[in-house]
Design brief:
It is built from twelve helices and 18 strands. The protein is α/β, with parallel strands linked by helices.
């Protein structure tokens, strides 16, 4: 392994901070005065999304595995690589002849004809921050940085679609359900293009999202009285408003009130609208209900939904960063496998069964894979999937040279895999795909030509949304 990609021990992506389960919307009425006029003007019209050949708006659900999933122990097993590499898991056949997963993914194996495994992903950054920034924003820098230099694809897509015209849907075009936010963001686009963020555990019986679909008219009136925006604008002489900017602000205020009072927004987030059988099929846990909510949101017209599979279901350190100091890697994979396999399987099945498979693309990925060679180190603490402190246990470290992700829906031809890694899973050797290719493929599905699209940065310089890369042909819409 080259020195620039040397795997290292690290605490991994930090677990989500202890935050209130109920988070107020980032851009509610109370936040109007914190936004600049240009930000408000850019947001005055929510996106009219590009359409596919059938006339339907396209959408993307990205399921993020923070810390990086071991490709060797899931989608790209290497049974003949030797005991130092292969791990303890047996192989199972899938719905595609000749394609095998490990025994951790029996449900996904049964529906392997409904998704495609990209086995030859590669990026060049060994750290979580830089690796995440490469995959989410295309930043080629291998160095870890405290904040992103470039906006992530989700913010870019939301921004670009908003330039195309208005739409009547009161739901925000970009929503994150416990989203990946640690190493990504809107950067020079500004906070106006961050996701509408939903946090907490949607499997809890009393889970609610405040400021969405308020039914109490007294509460609606109280919020209206607290809004100072219109009062301030009414004190201005509108004869100086040559560009109609104040009218635009009025319109934005009305859109926010619609979000607060619309039954449509309330129903889109309300998982109790689903029958119990469906909720059980996804799994009555945080991950299952996050993915169910994601399906409901794209069905209701949201363009981009992101969600992170992190937290207690991952094990002691609450992410997929399975260094030996963090987790017993194989115990950790067993610990999270059932919830992961069930939730992803249900989401993919639902996308097809509900007729969303042509317009909704589902992508499941992390920032990199894990080292094919198993390491040994002393645990730093006891917990789920980790032995008491000081106990020697196996782990796998960071590995950006080869990893897997899965793709479903989006009108793509599914069933089988793209590319290959070498005998030990150390290097992508066939149909190698970069982070830039990954991003170009997502943009293509959303109707955005990443090769020709630029956005001005803080200094007004036109900046490409992806620095190179081409859409992966096998992952493009058929017909």
């Amino acid at each position: 392994m080259s020195s620039s990609l040397t795997a290292r021990h690290c605490p991994g992506p930090l677990p989500a901070a202890a935050a209130p389960r109920r988070e107020f919307m980032r851009l509610g009425l109370a936040g109007f005065t914190s936004l600049s006029l240009p930000q408000l003007l850019r947001m005055k019209a929510q996106a009219a999304a590009p359409e596919n050949s059938s006339g339907e708006r396209t959408a993307v659900i990205m399921v993020w595995q923070p810390g990086g999933c071991s490709h060797i122990d899931t989608y790209d097993p290497k049974p003949e690589s030797g005991s130092e590499y292969r791990g303890p898991f047996g192989l199972i056949d899938t719905a595609i002849p000749g394609m095998q997963f490990t025994e951790l993914l029996p449900l996904q194996a049964k529906i392997a004809d409904r998704f495609t495994v990209l086995r030859s992903m590669r990026q060049t950054a060994a750290g979580h921050p830089a690796g995440s920034m490469q995959m989410l924003s295309g930043d080629p820098d291998k160095r870890d940085k405290p904040r992103p230099r470039y906006p992530d694809w989700m913010s870019v897509a939301s921004y670009l679609r908003a330039q195309q015209g208005t739409r009547s849907n009161p739901l925000p075009p970009y929503i994150g359900i416990n989203p990946p936010t640690q190493y990504n963001g809107p950067a020079y686009l500004g906070d106006a293009w961050s996701p509408f963020s939903v946090t907490g555990d949607p499997s809890l019986p009393d889970f609610k999202i405040p400021n969405i679909g308020l039914a109490d008219q007294n509460e609606v009136q109280r919020i209206g009285r607290r809004s100072t925006l219109r009062q301030r604008l009414d004190n201005l002489d509108r004869t100086f408003d040559r560009l109609g900017e104040l009218d635009a602000l009025d319109q934005f205020e009305q859109q926010a009130m619609t979000l607060l009072t619309s039954d449509q927004t309330k129903q889109a987030f309300d998982l109790t609208q689903e029958d119990e059988q469906t909720r059980e099929r996804y799994g009555k846990n945080s991950w299952g209900q996050q993915l169910l909510m994601a399906r409901r949101l794209v069905e209701a017209g949201v363009d981009v939904v992101t969600t992170s599979l992190r937290g207690p279901l991952c094990g002691r350190v609450q992410n997929w960063d399975d260094h030996a100091v963090n987790h017993h890697v194989f115990d950790a994979l067993r610990f999270r496998a059932n919830a992961y396999d069930q939730a992803v399987t249900a989401l993919i099945e639902d996308i097809y069964e509900r007729g969303l498979d042509q317009r909704v693309l589902v992508v499941v990925t992390g920032e990199f894979g894990r080292t094919p060679k198993i390491s040994q180190a002393a645990s730093t603490g006891a917990g789920n999937a980790s032995a008491p402190a000081g106990t020697q246990q196996p782990g796998r470290d960071h590995w950006p040279r080869a990893f897997s992700n899965i793709w479903a829906g989006g009108g793509i031809r599914t069933g089988g895999f793209i590319g290959a890694t070498d005998r030990r899973g150390e290097d992508s050797i066939e149909r190698i795909c970069s982070a830039e290719d990954f991003l170009a493929t997502i943009y293509h599905h959303l109707g955005i030509d990443s090769a020709k699209t630029v956005i001005e940065d803080f200094n007004g310089r036109p900046t490409p949304i992806v620095n190179g890369g081409t859409p992966i042909p096998e992952l493009l819409r058929q017909g």
